[in-house]
Specification:
The chain has helices at residues 12-23, 41-45, 62-72, 86-89, 93-114, 148-167, 189-201, 222-232, 251-261, 290-296, 304-314, and strands at 3-7, 27-32, 53-56, 76-79, 119-125, 171-176, 179-180, 208-210, 216-217, 220-221, 241-243, 249-250, 270-272. It has two domains: 3-179 and 219-243, Rossmann fold, CATH 3.40.50; 186-218 and 248-284 and 303-314, UDP-galactose 4-epimerase, domain 1 (Alpha-Beta Complex), CATH 3.90.25. The chain is of the alpha/beta class. Bound molecules: NADPH dihydro-nicotinamide-adenine-dinucleotide phosphate.
């Protein structure tokens, strides 16, 4: 039985990945910064809370990382932990950089120190590319991050590439574009839109306050994206892959789709709020999943309209 360690199991991707790996017969252990107080509500929601082992681990503390790796002795590590909000990274730049870049480095150092054939998946991000200038980015597109989060993810990406080359560690980065689900925390704009639209449909008279709705993003469905993470660690050689739908839509199109699904006209319920604009914003973000299609056999099945439809149908009010 293969053993997987999922760092950040309490989050959206951690919960879906745990479910997938359990279905594949893995023994799954997950970490949280404090496993005693974390509610692990996403695991409960997916009905797998009792099937995973849980450990406390601070990725920024090398001793903590080394202790957990020694205790769990995993075959595969999926690092999904760290400050994950682009917006919040402008308010928490140091926390963002440390949790992502130092966290990833500590995992790589621990694997190097233990001299074991542990495979590592690193949660890279499309935010590394910055604005893709109207064209889809692929694995050869240069990084031009436009947020502290993007800078941190770019740092972690190069740490992984360096340790793979220098020490022959099996480490792979998935450069994932936005992927959504009902398990997304409320601070993310997609979840805010769906939740507010559903409250309005149920009779609330509130308005939906949004920043720049002209931005274009490549939105996919999270349960499909965790499959790609798993596939990356099953290849003969470690490599980096862009994971995306290949289709970009504006935030306004996302909003219109969400309200239309509830028989509402979005224009009657949305207020543009300049205070929600970011210091530096990405106008267009779109990925080319051609390499993942070809080498992993991975293809996104759900683009934005389908993502909205699924979020509207299952999101709790
Ligand atoms: P979530 O925010 O849902 O989960 C991330 C987990 O990391 C949390 O559950 C939390 O676990 C832990 N965490 C949060 N803040 C910190 C911090 N400051 N220091 C250390 N740990 C922290 O993220 P997702 O599941 O959506 O994403 C998984 C990974 O993929 C993240 O690294 C994210 O940046 C990346 N990613 C996500 C994309 C998306 O569209 N969802 C796109 C591209 C990349 P706990 O509180 O239990 O410690």
């Amino acid at each position: 039985m293969k053993k997987a360690l999922i760092c950040g199991i309490s989050g959206q991707d951690g919960a879906y990945l745990a479910k997938l790996l359990l279905e594949k017969g893995y023994s799954v252990c997950g970490t949280s910064r404090d496993a005693q107080i974390s509610a692990f509500s996403n695991l409960t929601r997916l009905g797998i809370r009792d099937q995973v082992k849980l450990e406390s681990m601070a990725l920024t503390d090398f001793r903590s990382v080394l202790q957990v790796l020694t205790k769990v002795d995993p075959d595969e590590i999926y690092n999904l932990a760290g400050q994950s909000s682009v917006g919040l990274s402008f308010e928490l730049p140091v926390e963002t950089l440390e949790s992502i870049a130092t966290g990833t480095l500590n995992l790589l150092e621990a694997i190097r120190f233990l001299v074991k054939p542990i495979k590592l998946y690193n949660a890279g991000s499309s935010e590394c590319f910055g604005d893709t200038q109207g064209a889809p980015a692929d694995e050869n597109t240069p990084f031009r991050p436009r947020s502290p989060y993007g800078v941190a993810k770019a740092t972690a990406f190069w740490e992984v590439a360096n340790y793979r080359e220098a020490y022959s560690i099996f480490a792979a980065s998935g450069i994932l574009f936005n992927h959504e689900s009902p398990l997304r925390p409320q601070r993310f704009v997609t979840q805010k839109i769906i939740a507010t639209a559903k409250r309005i449909a149920a009779g609330s008279r509130e308005m939906l306050h949004l920043g720049n709705t002209a931005i274009r993003r490549d939105w996919g469905w999270a349960p499909e994206y965790v499959e790609a993470m798993y596939l990356m660690l099953q290849q003969a050689q470690p490599d980096d892959y862009v994971i995306a739908t290949g289709q970009a839509y504006s935030l306004q199109e996302f909003v219109a789709q969400a309200f239309a699904a509830l028989d509402l006209d979005w224009q009657a319920h949305v207020v543009i709020d300049q205070s929600l604009y970011r210091p530096t914003e990405i106008a267009h973000s779109q990925g080319s999943p051609a390499k993942a299609n070809r080498q992993l056999g991975w293809v996104a099945k759900s683009a934005m309209p389908e993502v909205v439809r699924q979020m509207v149908s299952v999101h709790p009010q």
